[in-house]
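ok here's the first one, seq then struct tokens
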Amino acid sequence: MILNDVVSIVNKYNHTPDNKSILNFSLKLEDTKIFTLDGTNFSEEISILNDSVSCAEVEKSNLVILSEPSVNALEENELRKFKDTYREVVERAKSLNIEIVHIVTNNTWFMIFHDLISTYNVPVYLRNKDYSNLQGNLEGIEFHIVEDFFLLKDFHHYSNKITENLLIDLTSFQEVDNFYTQTINAVFDVVPSFENVTILLSDDSYLPDIDNEKVRVCYESDGVPVDSYTYVLLVTNTPYSYTSIYKTMYYAANSKVVFTNYNFKLNNMIPSVILNLSSHFNFVKPLSSYEAFDIINENRNTIMYKYSTINLLDKIYRGFFKDSLIAPLEINNTLDHYEDNLYLRKTNNSSSNLSIVEYKYDIEKTLAFPIIFLGEKSVKYKNSLLTLVNQSQSPYIIHHYNNEITKSTTNPKVSVIVPIHNNGKYLKFKCFRSLKTLSKFNEMEIIFVDDGSSDPETLRIIEDILSNNRVVFKRYEDGSGSASRPRNEGVHLASTDLITYLDPDNETIDDGHSVLLTEMLKDDSLDMVVGDIVREDNNKRNAIRYSKKVQRAINTDVIEDTKETLVKTNLTVQSIQGLIVKKNVITDNNIIMVEGAAGQDTLYFQELLLNCSKVKVVDHMIHSYYAYVEGSVTNTVSHKFFEKFYKVEQERIKFLIKEDLIEHYMKIKFNFYFKNWYMTKYEQVLEIDKMEAISYLRDIVKLYNQYRNMIDDEILMFVES
């Protein structure tokens, strides 16, 4: 992928990175000589690092990096010449026992070199998306799957200036029915919120004349002045394509707040990118300057510290030479909970002096960025300073913005309980950021309960949020293994009469929790209000419309016979993050979540419902549920996964018997749930864990042994085989 394939940019900068300055103080130049083929992305990448790293002769190198041509079209004779050169380099390197690798950048071109790679046993490094396309052609080849990587040559704009100007990139939007049934008309709804808007089109696209003085239309070949825009809305109807991912990485690296379609990889890679979870673009609005800077800084740091080609090269270098390619910048001072990374290391014998005066969870990376990637010698952020030893020049100033500290409301109406465990970036950039967008945020009491987080970044982020916002906080030193304990404790900590929940890796959307609160406050006879939610995974979006199901079952949006409704909806449940319930429903009936369990939300919802006298459902999306977040308990399958579900099943059967629902459950739920959840998850268990996993599944079936005649033979054979 090259820049011209991404977006055409006019090079007007607030700060122009000197490509020759990137890491020039920290590469192990005396040990590193890398040969690359001309005409590949990596020939330019290596030259950017430092001239002395790039080696023109195979014989003088200690590492050869091969790749496909960087262009998408070549004449037949040019391609033949390229392949001949490729063969000569491979043969020469092999004869001299020089380490050699091939990094995939173009799936189509890769197949042209497949025979040489296979014949000469060249190790191949490729991304997940490349593996998906090529896995049928990798037999007999040593391959390594790596993270997506950002090309350094595409980093060329560093700025902390905040404007209210928006670039709408439609170059990936195909004029067909799109992924979320969005229309071009919806794009124009965001225009009034911004001072100036540029719409970027691919050269073969067409847009009618727009009669709006703040909007201009340009094409890729025109070039866009990148320094004019703080915000980018990247619209695509192929949100899971690699082109969309790379474009987002490009804008994130180049100092932009990025709004784009939901993509599970982007959600896992860059939580600070704002993803569209609605059927409209109302979420695209200017942020406060402080929040915009926070996101710009996080986007840029994430890409350049974690996903650049330097990270990939270091991984390859370590594999061959058992040492890092990078000699990190040494610093003599850090905040608590600091962890070394590829580029920065805390040491007493440092090559730089770091003075930290104010708190910012990623302040070391923020201060070091202009030194590592821009060639500065001294950097200042507010009153904190990082300076290379023996440097006396004036520091580069990182412009900062003051945060308006949220004052406690004297009379909050609802308590939002957020259980936390080692997912700090999601907490900051998904959950808490979305809560602050609610129109009734100032009427909410936010309760963080940390269930033994051990991740240093999470601990820092919690402190960062607590220092600037009104949040009730409690921490357990040791984790319990599920969200139940912190949720139960949150109820005890709540000072309001109303309770709701939001997990740190989810978001409130469409002002949903404000809508629920409004409904509760309008009618004091309501015990609970329940809305709808959006479920996102790695393939598609599902709107889970509980309100529609209830209204179809009982022909009204108000539930007064909760048990009858539960039966008529076939025991359907809704996310407890999509409701607001009176606190006394929980406390008076001693409803608690099963601690140390998984899947406890469904049982908890049913208990809440049956202990309410009057419930209203609203046809409104309340929150997003990310079903494919890396590290989430429901995506990490071992025998412990089934152990946690066994705990909730022990309580579920008691509840079902008590409420005289057990036979109904066995008829309509048990078999379907067991086969489509437990048995499917079992297939994801590693062989080493399968014996223990099946023992828990066997124990779950035994719990329901009294109703064995209602259990499918397929399930019985599965657990007894």
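and now the second one, same deal
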Amino acid sequence: MTTFTNGARRARQARRAGLVVGTMALLLSALPSASATDTAGSAPRWCPTVAEHRVDCGTLRRPLVAGEPALGTVGVSYAVVRHRGPAAARGTVAVNPGGPGEVAIGKAAEFTAALEGLLEDHDLLLVDPRGTGRSERIPCGVTDAEYRFGTRPQQRDAVARCADALGPRAQGYTTAATADDLDAVRARLGAPQLSLYGLSYGTYLMPVYASRHPERVRTIVLSGAYPHDFDPLARPAAQAVSLALRRVCERSVPRACDGDAAVRDLATTAGRLRERPLTVPVSAGGKTYPQLFTEGKLANLLYEAASRGAGMAPAEPSLLGNLPRALDRFVKGDTGPLRELVREEGSSGSAEDQAPYIAVVCNDYRKAWAADAPLPVRWQQYRKALAGAGQGGFGAFTGRGFNEGPTDGGDVCISWPRANTARPQPTDLRLPDVPVLVLSGDLDANTPDANGRLAAAKFRDAAFFSVPNTGHVPELEPTGCVTGVTSHFLRTGTPGDTSCLGGLAPVAVAPVRD
């Protein structure tokens, strides 16, 4: 696999679950060779240029909200990177790189490089989800940096503000709408079927597509996967944080840390931050945010940020590899190393509007309260769920503390209004009986092994692999082993020889010294 240059730095700067910069997507299906262009009959100016490949681009007008013509339409843009070989394409590589809200067209060159072998005889289809990239942004006035670095009450207020700004248009931001957009592009191009490759949030989107358009699906690959009926209190993620710390310590050569000690240090650090949060200014996009670093922010750092790019450049320092030492020093009174990790992660913040992220998460994702309940009742239901969960299920964290970490979970959407918003995405999908490959990184606490196995269990014909020494998502590892397995699966419907998965190098870990 060809990766981005400066891979470790770029991995640290990827924003959240699903924003997997430099990954690829591969999928089989037939597209016609005829060029698809914009309404003027020529390639739009934004159409990417990819060496040694013809690229056809276009924009399709779609209802913003099905059945509500008064709300207007949205332009959904796509790019088709054509295969290199002289014969007709054997299939199509169709991808969603995550988010919600991550763009695909802008990464055409990177995806093509990652798929170099497969694109000898397969086309690559990239669709920017509605409201992102080239697909007509509909902003709500909340930036990425503002949202991520705010306190939990500030995040809840930002969600409510976003919903108010969108008004009835908020109904247009759903996974089902994005899935139907993809199928409309498929129909425009004349492809009888698609194979689906989802990364992170794409593993949520692609099964929705498969359930709504089952006859159009040939194969499915899900990487960094989670099921639609995931635990709304994120207990598998909380437990996976401790497991990842133990694994990186146990596998470090020479032994750099003790995994049990690292987990104890994590619990101590969480407890101290619960009582006395740190103020850690972070600079992003030319602005400085006086971030209040709480138990919830610690949870976010460990389960979300530390999972991104783990294993991408295993010999180089990474956030996950530096955490045991930073936690050890914090417990011993030195807050400097942990502060530095927080500042470094903070530099990835941007001024990107978060409407596509917030609206899809708050419209679709499973919550610990009833969507139709008024706000006071929602709070009662949420607190009751936390109290009923106990503390043992959250690893080194308290339930409340950990659930203040996810920007797409916990109580962050509790003020999302019922009026003018879509119904939540159903969790009981009827899925086609097609070959499915599911991958999880065994250092990934964001979409951990436990959730990957649950996602695979939804399909009759699914193969699941936990990929050692990789995080979110496994394809970012540099040897090409994982992409070789997925490429073989997409060509044959079977994973083939997977022995290389056991030989991926452990991540570098900063030594912990007394």
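notes on #2: Residues 139-172+234-424 form one domain. Residues 1-40 have pLDDT under 50 and may be disordered.
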